């Protein structure tokens, strides 16, 4: 038996494995192959065998993008959700991200304990650092000017929006925050940003060189998109469906990028460490000396 099974995922799970091994925990993996762990971790012959080899299972973020398969670095026909659910057993604990309602119900029925990384406030706040840095990186790559001195709009002032606004302000951007709640607009002004309501967007949206959206509902519909400067850079970091009418944006030839899963793309080691820290905080696993 092993301490942990790691089933699917991306480069974040590779760094999680390295961290877990450094804590003297035994790991078996499936759907993951990378030079960083080659020869250091056991590989399961099948998903079922890997899952049934330990009491704790770590899987992908998101757990599934299509509702059928678990994402993995190495493809296999048995990386299906149905195979996963058939293999887990009562008493096991599963860590992954963005479980669907159906998955939660299935795990509950099987008496499997589960933790969703992405519903934990601490994980979300710390991941917001990499998300903000990655969004800014994408904006710099996609634009032709400097962020310094630019008129920048951040829509939404939740966990990601707050970190993003601070990072942009640190780059000497002229930051405006659009938020629904009056308390969020007041807080943004107290922190030194301009603030507007969503109702004011039609009158102000043409002012901005860069627009960062963090709200996962449609904000920028066709009428609003037509008011945006054709030279503006638009970065949507909200989960699907995002905050833009992407079809209209494409027809208008706007410089729009839907940039998702940023922590795993730009800071996989830091993200992996955050996730392992969360696992240890649940007392599901303990480091071995």
Find the CATH topology of the largest domain: Rossmann fold
What does the oligomeric state look like here?
single chain
Number of strands: 12
CATH-defined superfamily of the largest domain: NAD(P)-binding Rossmann-like Domain
Q: Strand content of the residues, in percent?
A: 15-25%
Quick structural gist:
The protein has 289 residues and is an alpha/beta fold. Helices cover 38% and strands 16% of the residues. Helix 5 (121-142) packs antiparallel against helix 12.
Question: How does this structure look, described?
Answer:
The chain has 289 residues and is of the alpha/beta class. It folds into two domains: 132 residues, NAD(P)-binding Rossmann-like Domain (Rossmann fold, 3-Layer(aba) Sandwich); 134 residues, Rossmann fold, CATH 3.40.50.720. The chain contains twelve helices and twelve strands. Strands 3-2-1-4-5-6 form a six-stranded parallel sheet, with helices on both faces. It has a six-stranded parallel sheet with strand order 9-8-7-10-11-12. Strand 1, helix 1 and strand 2 form a beta-alpha-beta unit. Helix 1 packs across helix 12 and helix 5 packs antiparallel against helix 12. The radius of gyration is 21 Å and the shape is elongated. The relative contact order is 0.13. The mean pLDDT is 95. InterPro entries: DpaA_N, NAD(P)-bd_dom_sf. This is Dipicolinate synthase subunit A N-terminal domain-containing protein.
């Amino acid at each position: 038996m092993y301490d942990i099974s790691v089933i699917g995922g991306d480069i974040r799970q590779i760094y999680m494995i390295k961290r877990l091994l450094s804590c003297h925990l035994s790991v078996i993996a499936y759907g993951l192959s990378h030079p960083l762990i080659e020869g250091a971790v056991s590989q399961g012959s099948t998903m079922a065998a890997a899952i049934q080899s330990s009491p704790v299972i770590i899987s992908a973020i998101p757990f599934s993008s299509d509702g059928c398969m678990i994402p993995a670095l190495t493809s296999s026909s048995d990386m299906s959700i149905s195979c996963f659910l058939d293999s887990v057993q009562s008493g096991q604990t599963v860590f992954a991200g963005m479980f669907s309602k159906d998955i939660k119900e299935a795990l509950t029925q099987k008496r499997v304990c589960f933790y969703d990384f992405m519903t934990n406030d601490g994980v979300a706040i710390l991941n917001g650092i990499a998300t903000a840095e990655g969004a800014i990186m994408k904006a710099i790559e996609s634009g032709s000017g400097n962020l310094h001195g630019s008129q920048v709009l951040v829509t939404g002032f939740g966990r990601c929006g707050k970190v993003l606004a601070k990072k942009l302000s640190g780059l000497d951007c002229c930051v405006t925050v659009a938020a629904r709640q009056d308390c969020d607009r007041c807080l943004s002004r107290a922190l030194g940003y301009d603030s507007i309501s969503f109702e004011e967007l039609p009158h102000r949206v043409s002012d901005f060189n860069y627009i960062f959206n963090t709200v996962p509902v449609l904000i920028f519909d066709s009428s609003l998109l037509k008011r945006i400067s054709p030279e503006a850079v638009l970065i949507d970091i909200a989960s699907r469906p995002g905050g833009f009418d992407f079809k209209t944006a494409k027809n208008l030839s706007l410089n729009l990028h839907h940039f998702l899963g940023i922590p795993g793309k730009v800071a996989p080691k830091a993200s992996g460490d955050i996730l392992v820290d969360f696992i240890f905080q649940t007392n599901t696993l303990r480091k071995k000396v």
